[in-house]
TrEMBL record:
GO cellular component labels: DNA-directed RNA polymerase complex; nucleus
Top-level division of the source organism's lineage: Eukaryota
Ranges annotated as spanning the membrane: none
EC number in record: 2.7.7.6
Family: Belongs to the RNA polymerase beta chain family.
One Pfam family named in its UniProt record: RNA_pol_Rpb2_6
GO MF entry, a single one: DNA binding
Key words of the record: DNA-directed RNA polymerase, Nucleotidyltransferase, Transcription, Transferase
GO biological process: DNA-templated transcription
Designated name of the protein: DNA-directed RNA polymerase
Domain DNA-directed RNA polymerase I subunit RPA2, first and last residues per copy: 7-64
Sequence ranges assigned to domain DNA-directed RNA polymerase subunit 2 hybrid-binding in this UniProt record: 113-219
Length: 225
């Protein structure tokens, strides 16, 4: 099927060979196969998805780069085809004859927000997911063109700082120019034994010196008679 339309048929064994050939031609740029063509081969399995060879060429599709082990070149794969591929993360995970692709780095599958969480491998995976959601809600630097934005409400932190602990990709993305928060000294202790849940005591002098200061941008429409 090409973009949801049936263009031909073949046996299950032939479909697997055709998919492998198309992927090799895609990586090498041969036979006129586009580099961004998504090639998904769904095998015939009991209780699985409907088997077939699915090709997608429409624009605005999510794709990501991985390394094709056959020649070491970059291969762009889509969200549907990667489900039926054997992609290794580390070198010791490569199975000869089975694994066809490998991640360029172990963190490539993570988003930009997820790659900003330091020591994420020491935390529970649900907590890392919560951090990804909270990372999108930081005041930080939401835009570089505040005077040209028409948001109903936008937040911006004023006393931003560069983080003391950071990931490697933090420097690669150049986020020091657009800091997203403050460095805080946190004490996890019981103050009186009758503390509130999900609350904290903030140092008054830190607040008076600008800790956590922010600006709220509101958009108003003025109609003159």
């Amino acid at each position: 099927m090409l973009d949801g339309k049936i263009v031909g048929w073949c046996t299950p064994k032939t479909a697997e060979k055709v998919a492998q050939s198309l992927k090799v031609w895609r990586v090498n740029g041969e036979k006129g196969i586009p580099l961004d063509l998504e090639i998904a081969h769904v095998p015939n399995t009991y209780g699985g998805e409907y088997p077939g060879l699915y090709l997608f060429s429409s624009p605005a599709r999510m794709m990501r780069p991985v390394k094709y082990l056959g020649n070491g070149k970059t291969d762009m794969i889509g969200t549907f085809e990667q489900v039926y591929m054997d992609i290794a993360c580390m070198d010791d995970e490569v199975v000869p004859g089975v694994t066809t692709h490998q991640e360029f780095t172990p963190t490539n599958i993570l988003s930009i927000i997820a790659n900003q969480t330091p020591f994420s491998d020491f935390n529970q995976s649900p907590r890392n997911m919560y951090q990804c959601q909270m990372g999108k809600q930081t005041m930080g630097t939401p835009s570089t063109v505040f005077n040209h934005r028409t948001d109903n409400k936008m937040y911006r932190i004023q006393s931003s700082q560069t983080p003391v602990v950071r990931t490697e990709l933090y420097n690669e993305y150049g986020l020091d120019g657009w800091p997203q928060g403050n460095n805080a000294i946190v004490a996890v202790i019981s103050y009186t034994g009758y503390d509130m849940e999900d609350a904290m005591i903030l140092n008054k002098s830190a607040h008076e010196r600008g800790f956590g200061y922010g600006t709220v941008y509101n958009h108003h429409i003025s109609i003159w008679p």
